[in-house]
Amino acid sequence: WTNSTGVDQRLRVMNPTAAHASPQIAGEYASWKELRPLWEAASFMGQHYGVLFNLRGTVRLPGVSDVAHEHGAKIVADLTHEMGERLRDWCGGPVLHWIYRHQPEPDGRFASRVGFALPPEQLGFTLDWARTKFFPRRQNRVPELEFSFAFCQSENTALRARFHWRTVRALIRNLDPALQERGQNGERRPLVELLSIPVAWRAPVGPLFRGRVRGASQTLGPDAQREASASNMHFLSAVKDRAWGHLDSGWELGEFVDRRAELARRRDDEQRLRALYPDHDELAQARRQRALAELTETRSSDARMRLRSWRGWWQPPSKTPPK
Question: Which of 110, 234, 269, 285 could pair covalently with 72 via S-S, beta carbons 3.0-4.6 A apart?
Answer without folding.
Answer: 110
